[in-house]
Each structure stands twice: as C-alpha cells, then as structure tokens.
C-alpha cells in the first residue's frame, strides 16, 4: 500500500511526505537503492503531463524549424522535404512524425525509446534537460515497480537494517500534543 500511495504522489507531482519514512521502514533494509531513487525523485518530481508539455514546447527547436522571419531558410527546408525516398516499412524520418512517435511512446510507458527518438532529431541536443527529466521519471517508476512487486512477494513484517522485525507505528494513529 505504501508503494502504491508513493506512486500516486509522484504521479501527481507532490512530495510523498510521511510516505517516504514508511517506504524506508518497509523496504529500506532489502531495497534501499530503490527507496533512495523514489526519495530523490520526490525532491524534483517529474510527471508524465510535464514531460509531454515540455516536449511540445521544445518541438520547434527539435525539428530545426527556422525562425518565422527567415524566409529563405524556411523555403530551403520546405524544398528539401518535398521528396523523401524510404522503404515502405521504415518509420517516417520527418521530425514532426518523430516527435509524435516519441509522444506516443511516452504515453505507452516506453520512456527510453522516446528519449532515443527525441535525441536523434536535428535539434536533439536542445532536449538534454528534457531527457534527464525523462530518465528520472523512468528510474523512479522502475523503482516503484520493484517495490510494489516486493510488497506482494515478501512478508508483510518490515525489517530494520539488522534484519529483525521493525516496529512500524501508523502516522495516522500517533497522539498529538495539545
């Protein structure tokens, strides 16, 4: 439950709050690296919506589209794109089509493939920060996948760093000072 709640928090782009402590208590002994990845992701949250919006913003720079006032550069680009020879089964190399493929890959959860598609564009270097954020997104989701699997497969009793059963008080039932 803690791993699923943490995923929901990251998907919304909000810090997990007390869930981070719960993750450390529940999974820290056996899956400390994954817990740390989730904790780091919570400090700089990346959502799928943000990745898609940033990709949309970057699109003109990625496609190498000339500035609106540069008539001759735009005309040369249009002329160069009039005739393209490719195999029937090959995906379109047109930058706009590649950006759309990357968008669909993101929506399908194929983040690494989307990053590769974007980085292969003429202006792919402009997407360095976007690719870094997408990598953080993918790493945090992979860590959460592992933690959710561990929650299903491992005993419910959390262990401390020495392997003994840990006491895990509920944050909801803790007495408040008045």
Q: What can you see in these coordinates?
A:
The chain has 178 residues and is mostly helical. The chain is 62% helix and 0% strand. The radius of gyration is 22 Å and the shape is elongated. It starts with a helix and ends in a 25-residue tail after the last helix.
Highlighted features:
178 residues, mainly alpha, single chain, elongated
Give a quick rundown of the structure.
The chain contains 7 helices and no strands.
Helix run count: 7
Structural class estimated from helices and strands: mainly alpha
| Global morphology | elongated
- Strand count: 0
Q: What amount of the residues lies in strands?
A: under 5%
Indicate the percent of residues in helices: 55-70%
Can you write the helix and strand succession as a string?
HHHHHHH
Main sheet summary: none
Radius of gyration: 22 Å
Mean pLDDT: 80
Head-to-tail CA distance between termini? 30 Å
Q: Which parts are unreliable, with pLDDT below 50 for 5 consecutive residues or more? A: none
């Amino acid at each position: 439950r803690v791993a699923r709640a943490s995923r929901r928090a990251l998907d919304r782009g909000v810090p997990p709050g007390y869930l981070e402590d719960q993750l450390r208590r529940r999974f820290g002994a056996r899956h400390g690296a994954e817990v740390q990845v989730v904790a780091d992701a919570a400090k700089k949250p990346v959502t799928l919506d943000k990745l898609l919006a940033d990709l949309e913003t970057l699109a003109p720079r990625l496609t190498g589209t000339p500035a609106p006032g540069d008539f001759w550069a735009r005309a040369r680009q249009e002329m160069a794109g009039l005739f393209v020879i490719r195999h029937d089964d090959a995906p379109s190399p047109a930058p706009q089509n590649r950006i759309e493929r990357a968008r669909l890959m993101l929506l399908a959860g194929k983040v690494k493939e989307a990053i590769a598609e974007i980085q292969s564009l003429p202006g792919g270097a402009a997407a360095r920060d976007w690719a870094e954020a997408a990598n953080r997104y993918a790493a945090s989701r992979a860590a959460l996948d592992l933690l959710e699997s561990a929650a299903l497969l491992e005993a419910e009793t959390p262990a401390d760093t020495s392997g003994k059963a840990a006491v895990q008080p509920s944050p909801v039932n803790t007495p408040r000072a008045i």
